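check this:
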Amino acid sequence: METIVALSTPPGTSGLAVIRLSGPACLSVARVHLGRGEPVPRHVYYGAFRGRAPGAPASGMPSAHSAGEILDRLNFVHFPAPASSTGEDVLELYPHGNMLLVDRILKALLDHPGVRLAGPGEFTRRSFESGKVDLLQAEAVGQLIHAQTVSALRNAQRIADGDLSAPLKGLRDSLVDLSVRLELDVDFSEEEADPDYASWMPRLEAVRAALDGLAAGFDKGRNLARPPRVVILGAPNAGKSSLINALVEEDRLLVSDIPGTTRDYVEVTLRLPSGLVHLVDTAGLGRPVDGLDGLAMERTRRQSEQADLRIWVQDGTSRSKTGQTGTTPEAFAESADPEVTVGDFSLRIRTKSDLPGFVSGEGSLSVSSRTRSGLDAFRSSLDALVFRDRGAGEDIMLTTERQFRAVEAARDRVDAALQGMRGRPAIEILAFEVREAAGHLRELLGEISTDEVLGKIFSGFCIGK
């Protein structure tokens, strides 16, 4: 088994970086580069990391004559097999987070015999292959890294902790036990003429109900990881682009007093306490003045149809250059192109609260993009609305197509067995269906897997995890 190495922290400047090795060469690396032949397990050391001097042997304690240049002084920890995250010897180095320095250390490690660069997800794959985690937990590691909402993060944490694996293993064991009993009935069919259908059906129905619950939550689980899409709508010059710039605290969008400045929708990412959202700035809605204006409004309508949440923004002053100031969305729709439909809005914002002539409106939030007055209240309301139905709750949800298909396949086989029992078929057929259902759950847990499936799963991981 080769020893793998990778940077486990993102490239860039930081106080510290983490370089991880896993495999049999860890002790040799510690001896040659760190001067520690037998490091105490889980003991944090501080010392010099040296490159290997030209012509120096790859093993043995470096001497004053054979030791190479000191590349950094750093902390390091040794985790011996099998009590490590991968089940192998693991060595972690914590150099200063300068990429020039990190690259030099990585080059020195890759020059060490038996050490190569890790592939995507290879550390987690070794954890899976050594039995440290099952496949559900391994997938959750990747979801923990890439989660963009708190709900997705919590769901991934629970799966990584085994909270989904445990009930699935219980269902698998129930099916395996029933399969064994059915197989025994096949073997002793001449001695026992009446199969015990009455006791088998409730057990299969309980498994079926549990699988139903998992499958039903898949759509919600899949959406947990997707940042909600919030579309900002309103009349031209209502202050939509200025509002988004103020929210993200950056001049991301072009702002002008000239109506129609925004011709196409623009997406901007906003970080809220509960996760990321995609804010979509759109062209102002109204009666189009030309063909291009009409096309821009048509794109706005399409974005509105794809929104998870829609916000109506209007100029709250009496100084509107478009004659549409202070209108409600409904009144605006009546005065605009008849084809323009505004629909329902979860939140209504009145902008320019710092200007003379501003009038607040019932059911609307007052905001000034220039002074940032009202922005905190807007963020809080937006966070509460957009993530209201995205909480993971008490249920743990499937999040990948692979998981859903395995649960569906197991459920189909359980359905076939239940239908068969009602028709009193041959015991051999029932035994086959139950055995197949258990097999699909074993695939879900990774107890049965192929290199193709594993390669697909771990290829989406970052290198170093």
